Amino acid sequence: MHDPQKDDLKLVVKGVTRTFSAGRRQLEALAPLDLTVGQGEFVSLIGPSGCGKSTLFNIVAGVDTPTTGAVAIEGDWQGERAGKVGYMPQQPLLLPWRTAEENVMLGLDVRRVPQKEARQQAHELLKRFGLLEFADSYPATLSGGMRQRIALLRTILFNASFLLLDEPFGALDALTRITLQMWLLDLLESFHSSVLFITHDVREAILLSDRIYVLSARPASVLRIVDVDLPRPRRQQMLAEARAVELEQELILLLMKEQPL
Ligand SMILES: Nc1ncnc2c1ncn2[C@@H]1O[C@H](COP(=O)(O)OP(=O)(O)OP(=O)(O)O)[C@@H](O)[C@H]1O
């Protein structure tokens, strides 16, 4: 499958379905699903629990294959997926025997960057994003928010150009979450990354995204595509402005229809 008109897109998901076999039962996780992410775009997926978001991520990352349909990264429908995306799963594992800096270096180790260069790059990144004082700390001594920052830097060093982030702030308290949202925006601005992002938090999706795909209950299909027409750079206070409140209401109403009682 080849569509030259879509070659300038970072990601094209076309007619993707995924059906799991659970014993003699068939479990349909994804209905035919289409979505795109443009170069440098931040796109969020929001939908009810268990609708199939992580399944879609696994397919885009190349960890799983679709039952039907296809995925293209940078216009390439056939090629190997692995290595083309920086994928941060819901519970990213930091290696407990490695310091924060050595964990950040992992993204480069996988790409076989020489140790000295990897350490230098990791060090620079920790410094640029305000984490240098934690460089020699082990994960067990870091707060949840700090661990997520380290995991995000590691993902960026693996592949900064296209990131799949599966609810990276889901387990954090509200204040830490807000701080990390702003930190992430700063990070992405430096790298001009394209991002596909999963969240359950409507306000988070509005603050960060250019576009939001609202997904139905399982099997996931696209209910609506919402353009977030708020200016950038984004600031937390914008969420109180009339347009943001309007978007929030629109999204909540859509999601409530999909939520089982
Ligand atoms: N390997 C598998 N075998 C069988 N069923 C699976 C498999 N992986 C996922 N599922 C099922 O597919 C459905 C979608 O799961 P998925 O984890 O993609 O949802 P999700 O939207 O990411 O959920 P959440 O929002 O809770 O993280 C669920 O019913 C899940 O039980």
Automatic annotation (TrEMBL):
Residues covered by the ABC transporter domain: 11-242
Keywords: ATP-binding, Nucleotide-binding, Transport
Endpoints of the signal sequence: none
CDD domains: ABC_NrtD_SsuB_transporters
Classification via SMART domains: AAA
InterPro entries hit by this protein: AAA+_ATPase, ABC_transporter-like_ATP-bd, ABC_transporter-like_CS, ABC_transporter_ATP-bind, P-loop_NTPase
Source organism, top-level taxon: Bacteria
PANTHER family xrefs: ABC TRANSPORTER ATP-BINDING PROTEIN (PTHR42788:SF2), TAURINE IMPORT ATP-BINDING PROTEIN-RELATED (PTHR42788)
Protein name (Swiss-Prot/TrEMBL): ABC transporter ATP-binding protein
